[in-house]
Amino acid sequence: VFEGEGKFALNQRSWLLGGYLHSKNSSVVNVNTGQNGIYVFVIDWTITHRENKFYAGYERQLSKKLPGLNGVFGLYYGTVKQQEIYFEGNTAMFWERGWKNAGLNDAGVFAGLHFERNIDTHFKLGIQSRLYFNVTAVIFEQMTLTPTLTYTFSKKR
What we know:
Blueprint: E1 2-11, E2 14-35, E3 38-61, E4 69-88, E5 91-97, H1 99-102, E6 105-118, E7 123-134, E8 139-151
Antiparallel strand pairs: 1-2, 2-3, 3-4, 4-5, 4-6, 6-7, 7-8
């Protein structure tokens, strides 16, 4: 998973955010099947599933007593590109589906927590967790647990 995000401070305790998340999952496939004298062998072939999410959201400090703990929620739009292998009867199908040829795209919501601490006057080190719910498919799609390094360009005095 790769993610890049930008935030705009509304005040000392809340931010608007926008970003991009790219995830890639792969699996090695081995198939040995045959029917009616036709045999298909797929040996150590790697198939991949890639997803690009573009998102916007709102982050807010949850407590004045614990200033590094923030809650976040937002909306996302995602496109998918995935390779598939399908066997049934006399049919063997190998294909790559995506937005252009199969209309694979999703919309959803996310929510999470972000905890960070100052390590410098401009840098913060933290950890964030988010849960993504795919509204299009009505499923919980992804959970991320990501270390964060935040750089603040300017500070209000």
